[in-house]
Amino acid sequence: MALRIFETDPDAMPKGTFSDDTVGRFHSGRSVNGIPEALPEWKVTTGDPEVAAAIAQLMGGQPEETESPNENFIEIMTAAKRVKVVLSGSGAITSDMKLWNGNVLIHHCDGVEFLSPESDKGIECGCPRLMEDRKANAKSKRGPSPSIQVMFRLAEDYDLGLFRFQTSSWKLAEMLHEISNALDKVGGEALADLFIELVEYTTKKGRDVSYFKPVIKVVKSWNDAVAGA
Predict the structure, then answer these.
(1) Nearest partner of 86 among 178, 174, 151, judged by Cα
(2) N or C, where is the chain less crowded by C-beta within 10 Å?
(3) pTM of the model
C-alpha cells in the first residue's frame, strides 16, 4: 500500500517529483494574459534543474523559474524549432477527442463512440461525420477537439529521460494514421523529427493566412541511427 498524503495536500508535494514517468514537457504555444499564443520555437518545462540545464545546452535558451504551482515550474524558451526524438513505437502517440468546461471534462470520445464516463462507453457520441463540421463545432465550443499526446526521448541525450508533448492540433490529427503506419514499419524504436512548421498562403479572396503547426516525421529505425546506417 502506497502513501496517499499528497492527495489531500498536493501543494506540499516537493517540486522535484513528477506525477508520471516524464521529466519534462514540450510546448508549441503558451498563454499570455489568458490568450493562447502559438510559438515559432519550442518551449520546454521541467521541475528538474539538471534537465533544464541540459535542454538549454542542447536547444538554447535560459532556464527560468516561474510562479507556476505545477511540478514543471522551470521554463526554457528555446531557440530550436526542430528536435530529433526517439519514439518507442506507434504506442508512443495516443489520441482521443475531448471537450472541457474549465477543468471539467464534459465530452470524451474517439470521434465515433464515447470513451468515458464508463456508463456511456461504447455508445455513439453524436459527433458530425464530416471533418469540416467537427472543426466548426470545436471552434464554437459545441464539440470536442483532438487531444494528442506524444511520449519521446531526445536523440541527442537519450538517457536524459522521457518527455511529453500534448497538442490539440487538427493538422497533426489528420496525419496520425501516416505517422502510425511509418512507426509500425520500423517495428521498434524510431528516430523522428519533431518540429514547428510555419504555414503561409493566400486565400482565393486575397486574404493572407499564416499559422504554426507541429509536425512529426519518422526518419528510420533508432538502431540503424545508432549504428550509423
Answers:
(1) 151
(2) N
(3) 0.86
